[in-house]
From TrEMBL:
Its cofactor is pyridoxal 5'-phosphate. GO terms for cellular component: mitochondrion. Keywords: Acyltransferase, Pyridoxal phosphate, Transferase. Residues 90-438 form the Aminotransferase class I/classII large domain. One of its GO terms (molecular function) is glycine C-acetyltransferase activity. GO terms for biological process: L-threonine catabolic process. This is Aminotransferase class I/classII large domain-containing protein. It comes from the Eukaryota. Belongs to the class-II pyridoxal-phosphate-dependent aminotransferase family. The keyword Transferase applies. The keyword Transferase applies. InterPro entries: 2am3keto_CoA_ligase, Aminotransferase_I/II_large, AON_synthase_class-II, PyrdxlP-dep_Trfase, PyrdxlP-dep_Trfase_major, PyrdxlP-dep_Trfase_small.
């Protein structure tokens, strides 16, 4: 249509130009073309269209149900305390993925600054053309050594890593068996591949066994699971998953985004937490955007053959710009910290903070998933979406505490919650202030007398 319309207008303008003493410029010719395009569209206005009203209805429905998500604006670096637009002083932050407090760590920031001077701002390229620097290869080596795997490939994000994995590795003759509460990026990645898809009930090993039995005719069987589930804070039962993988000749894919850096003695994730070592785990995907500094970037680490195939076939890797040099350099420093005494101390502090918060909340009578010894993702169950949103606002406006209410479609209907995330950067006093605020609002809204969800 563009070529046809442009040809018509150019032909008419050329005819007009030849009949006049003063020719029209190219600019004048194109101006006439775009003017014609602007006036030749549909007569119905945007605000009168069916699409407009459908989308407006979607937003109105979200506002009425309490599921509309408004973005608060932070005007400071990420940390245990942040400045939020519209507040007069800093507020306590209990909703960041900054588990180890590394998002604004001086060593990490300094490494990023140095890389800007030595490697530049960006590479304006994908990895296989001219987007691989020495620091990208160094980072991949650091990740490999940290996890004790064979090789690693870095992506722009873990969402990209998950989007690229399944399509590249599995075919229509294969089957992927996925936990029903897996992260959206795993679900979307599986949708992109042509393998048979089966879902098992959340962490239900009997149901997983049944699905593996159903998939016995498949060429390859792959179990896909989160290591730590981001909304419920559950830790996948890796011993039993590995046992079933062995029994049914299946392989395992694990997303460790909410565990890398702090779960397990060295912080390598779920398998280490459960003291499991299995050749069935062929790939671990994780992120640089949570405990590992909180910027951008993700990775797949595992069998070298898997990584080699991903470099050739994973579409988000092949068609997305490479990780910015400053992020790559800063992430190298993060892995150095994780493997040091400082890293050990940060993990110990995080778990101490987690036990303290969980213990006090359970003693107060709140419905907290995972019990006293659960991970630093702590869902405080409320049920009602509007209540979760209102309480989060009251926390900020009355107590200077930044938390977020989560509701459908992020979590199932009727299971709204405020998700608290602890950090090694929090003090005991910070946590006590949070618990006291919960008790005050819990009493106001009669939450402590309700049955657990």
């Amino acid at each position: 249509m563009y070529r046809s319309g442009l040809s018509t207008i150019l032909a008419s303008r050329l005819s007009y130009t030849l009949s006049k003493d003063k020719p029209l410029s190219v600019k004048e010719i194109l101006k006439g073309y775009y003017s014609m395009q602007a006036t030749s569209g549909a007569t119905k206005s945007w605000t009168g269209s069916t699409l407009y009203h459908e989308l407006q209805g979607t937003l109105d429905g979200a506002r009425q149900s309490g599921t509309f998500k408004a973005e608060r604006v932070i005007t400071s670096p990420q940390g245990s305390k942040v400045n939020v637009e519209g507040t007069s002083s800093s507020v306590l932050n209990f909703c960041a993925n900054n588990y180890l407090g590394l998002a604004n760590h001086p060593k990490v920031v300094e490494a990023a600054k140095r890389a800007l001077d030595t490697r530049g701002f960006g590479l304006a390229s994908v990895r296989f053309i001219c987007g691989t620097q020495d620091i990208h290869k160094e980072l991949e080596k650091k990740v490999t050594d940290f996890h004790g795997t064979e090789d690693t490939i870095v992506f722009p994000s873990c969402f990209d890593a998950n989007a690229g994995f399944f399509e590249a590795i599995l075919g229509p003759e294969d089957a992927v068996i996925s936990d029903e509460l897996n992260h959206a990026s795993i679900i979307d990645g599986i949708r992109l591949c042509k393998a048979q898809r089966l879902r098992y009930k959340h962490m239900d090993m009997e149901d997983l066994a049944g699905k593996l039995e159903q998939a016995q005719k498949a060429r390859i069987r792959l179990i896909a699971t989160d290591g730590v589930f981001s909304m419920d804070g559950d830790i996948a039962p890796m011993q039993e998953i590995c046992r079933l993988a062995e029994k049914y000749d299946a392989f395992i894919f694990v997303d460790e985004c909410h565990s890398t850096g702090f779960l397990g003695r060295k912080g390598t994730g779920t398998a280490e937490h459960w003291n499991v070592s299995s050749d069935r785990i062929i790939c671990i995907n994780s992120t640089l955007g949570k405990a590992l500094g909180g910027a951008t970037g993700g990775f797949s680490t595992g069998k070298k053959l898997i990584v080699d195939v991903l470099r050739q076939k994973a579409r988000p890797y092949l068609f997305s710009n490479t990780l910015a040099p400053s992020v790559a350099a800063a992430s190298i420093t993060v892995f150095d910290i994780l493997s040091s005494k400082e890293g050990e101390e940060l993990r110990e502090k995080l778990w101490k903070n987690t036990v303290h918060f969980r213990s006090r909340m359970e003693q107060a009578g709140f419905d907290v998933r995972g019990g006293v010894h659960g991970p630093p993702i702590v869902p405080v169950m409320l049920g009602d979406a509007a209540l979760a949103s209102r309480m989060a606002d009251e926390m900020l406006n009355e107590f200077g505490i930044y938390v977020i209410g989560f509701s459908y479609p992020v979590v199932p209907q009727g299971r709204a919650r405020i998700r608290v995330q602890l950090s090694a950067a929090h003090s005991t006093d910070d946590i006590d202030k949070l618990v006291d605020a919960f008790i005050s609002l819990g009493t106001r809204h009669n939450i402590l007398t309700r049955n657990k969800l």
